[in-house]
Amino acid sequence: MTYPATPLTTPSRYPDRATYDKDAVHELLDEQFFCHVGFVVDGAPRVLPTLFVRVGEAVYLHGSTAATWLLAARRESLPVVVSVAAMDALVLARAQPHHSANYRSVVVHGDATLVTDEADKRAAMAALIEKVGPGRTAETRPPTPAELAATAVLRLDLKLVSMKRRTGGPKDDEADLALPHWAGVIPLAATRGPAVAEPGVSVPAPAYVPTRSRWFDAPTLIGKHIRLEPTAIADAEEMFYALDDDEVWAFTTLPRPGSPAEMTALLTRELANPARMSFTKRLAATGEIVGTSSFYDINPDYGSIAIGYTQIAKAWWRTAVNTESKLLMLRHAFDDLGAERVVWHADIRNNRSQTAITRLGAAREGVLRHQRRRRDGSWRDTAQFSMISEEWPAARQRLMAWAER
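Now predict its structure.
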């Protein structure tokens, strides 16, 4: 089934990209939540973003009864143009003029009319809530009469509809194909991220709400000598001066910052990694920053988590501060999260770290050859260690005794 092609719905540029297929149009409208509505009020053009939902062969636009465009629709039907678009990829060509994007867009022309029947209005609003998550209307309070009166809904029939889309790679000129420039496609995707529950919510998240495992939450861990806090950008300057030593950075694959500004840039990149939980180490007595450590390679499904990216000011090497920080992280992994396995990685040349990991009670599993690049560009062989849940009780007792001493 298709929509009719008319002079109004036929694009003048790249008409070969146009389609009138109803299934393709419906798919995009059902996928997206936001549209832009263009109209004229008092001789002036307006374009406004708003929420919408498709029900059958109509879209319903949501807004406040006080909005200018909805006030205009009260007097009579309002001629509008509704646009919905999705970017699917960036297209990089060898020549600048041929850069493009893969996209899908739908444009609907027509006269939008105000929904005045209460039952129809409630049905349209319920459809919008169901679009958020199937079954959501049954799990939430419906609008009161006052709330219903304060909300306006416009209906626009899907009659004058066209869809335009681009797919594929760059369209470079033949003469440019030999140029030594990278060309290709960078896919883009909008996904639902892990939900953050509102304070005070005591019921579990419904099936349509994506949740983030608590394995990825960085709590504050407090010991007798050390306090581990989720790393913040504000820690950058003090952390730079605490770790400003060649030996501290000797075996890391991270670039050594040369200034507080470079440390800020490094932390910004590291904190943007959703698979890492970075902690700042502070002395419990003074709050002074003395180092950092992270959880990474987090796999709740397999009960596995790694500890690493550890740096500590040289003055605190081989002290209870370092021992207790590992004890706190292991307690969180095994006792709080119920981990089955904790992993460590160390540069094969870093004998000091390998000895320290072994002293914790971890077993060496082997060597990962050419596992990552060092800062000088050479390939690093990495020694891998692990501790499993059965080994944790004895290790905990030993670490607690060391931290006390």
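The radius of gyration is 29 Å.
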